[in-house]
Hints:
The chain is built from 24 helices and 6 strands. It has 580 residues and is of the alpha+beta class.
Amino acid sequence: MPLCTLTALLTVFQLLVSVSAFRQPYEYLTAIQSFADAFTNPSSVINGTMTSPLAEDVVGRIDVTTTFVGQELNTEYLFGLFVEGASETSTQLIGSPSSYTTQSLVVEPPVVAVSLVNQLRYPTIDSSFPLQIDLFIAFDDDLKIISYDAILRRWSEFFTYLVPLITPQIAIELNSTSTNSTELISMKTAMDVCAMSTEYCTDANQVYDSNDACMEFMTQIPFGNPWEGGMDNGWCRYIHKNMVKYRPEVHCPHIGPTGGDMCIARDYVQVTEDMPFNITLLSYNASYNALDMKNIPDHNQDELVAIETEIVYMTTVAFYSVSCVIYMLLLYVLAKAVEFLFGRYSLSYGTMSITNQRNSVTYVMAIFLTGGALTLQLISSPVLNNRYTFAASGMLKLTALVISGLYIFELTYRISMRWPLMTHHFCTIFAIVLLLSVLSYTRHPALMGAGEIWLFQATTEQSVFVGLLMYRLDCSPKRTRNVLYFAAVQSFIFKLGFAAYLLGFWAKHLAQFHSSPNDIALSVLLVVLTVLLMGTQVYGAGAVWGLAKKVDRFMKNPSISPVESSKSHSTLVFEELHKV
Ligand SMILES: *[C@@H]1O[C@H](CO)[C@@H](O)[C@H](O)[C@H]1NC(C)=O
Ligand SMILES: *[C@@H]1O[C@H](CO)[C@@H](O)[C@H](O)[C@H]1NC(C)=O
Ligand SMILES: *[C@@H]1O[C@H](CO)[C@@H](O)[C@H](O)[C@H]1NC(C)=O
Ligand SMILES: *[C@@H]1O[C@H](CO)[C@@H](O)[C@H](O)[C@H]1NC(C)=O
Ligand SMILES: *[C@@H]1O[C@H](CO)[C@@H](O)[C@H](O)[C@H]1NC(C)=O
């Protein structure tokens, strides 16, 4: 038996842990933001202040250059290139990213499509120019980039725009009198590449016989078109010059006569049709792997895609909520534990009818659970002042689950229930379902505030349960009477107060729901439910008051026990009503 319990606990724990591997879309937003921050602040990645946003076996492709495999290489190209460029004092053909704005963004975990407008700084001419970069990015379970496909939008146009603006400055730096920008760019490229080669590509890594040989080669070859950054030309070698100092053995060939495996002739059709990524960028397909798909017919694979991309609304028939099922089990265990403790430590409990025993158990459960719910509500109360947070929304949904679950449990656990209490429970559950559903369809945040206020009606009646429990357990009549009087007045005032608050809040913050004909249903239901609930609550407060009076009468005439006279009208009313 203990072994079985342990196994069950471990299973639940495992479930909850594995759930944490599933990511919410907002987590991808954060990951994209860190990537963009790193891109505009590359030295922090290179010097290790910021952890790399790239996975170990990342594969990346940039349309104007080529494909890069592995974390080290990609870090060098995405970050190192810009760090080195920024450290140069002469004019660079590639600017330093300084800031960005996000222009478009779609998240469908684990793939994100994002378009960033980056400002590229050219300090020697004291200017910045915008460059739009479109990216498809797939993330792994640790939110590291595992595949990315980048398109430098309008790169050719950018470069054509840039060249006449930087060549006068380049001419000054080169002591040249030329005004021919083709010549100036070619000379600049040759000077910069050869300086790197002469400094870093030495001994086994040497690729040119001498600096002169390098200059001669570099001024002979064409610079190339802006989109030919992965081809056999001066532009490609210029891009690769910044990485040479990181790993000369890898990068020297790229700036050498052969171009290594980077600056080479490429076939357009092959480049276009190639799919170099290990992890697909098709979001709907990304969560299935080839092994899972083995032996599944094509048609059923399509069905799996439909399942994978289903959005679960409050009313979608989906997998049941694990937390809800676990909560129901917990309620059962709690009830059994309270029964056990009562049986062990309370004399009066043994003499009660089963109906009253069960009622007493539910009072105890209600005191603790509504107390917990009330705490969550108080913590999340800033939503009433438009201070919405993810945590507050989660806590309010949890409160709704705690209360509606408790009510459903009570409906099944109690031996009998009178109609006012039943009406109260049904109305409350319906109000919760209604608000959560409308919230999930309309996403109107003020509905959270309405839920917060409404739930207070169910979570501020602990005094009633305490009074009823004292009554049931034969506590001192004087104290019981006082608690019951207090409970009747307190719950009446609170319920009336929160009902008024709710209606005021609805009038002020939920105008959409009483002015737009499409959304009017919520308002009608809200008002009807509030009135119905109010009715049962006034009745309930009255019953508690009646009970207090009864205890009072007993104190003046102790010959009749208040508990035994449970056939009297007020007790009957109260017995099933205490809840309201
Ligand atoms: C790393 O780079 C960041 C950003 O440029 C800088 O603020 C920080 O001082 C650097 N840290 C070290 C240890 O160089
Ligand atoms: C340009 O001329 C200046 C001063 O005459 C000199 O210091 C500099 O090295 C020259 N630059 C080049 C690239 O020749
Ligand atoms: C600039 O120089 C290139 C190469 O030397 C030459 O082909 C081109 O005609 C020149 N352009 C102008 C406008 O003189
Ligand atoms: C990922 O893809 C690259 C190039 O497409 C390949 O070289 C590498 O071996 C692949 N890695 C894995 C783990 O499949
Ligand atoms: C989707 O993934 C499966 C398994 O990895 C693969 O066999 C299939 O070709 C993929 N479909 C597409 C359109 O990429």
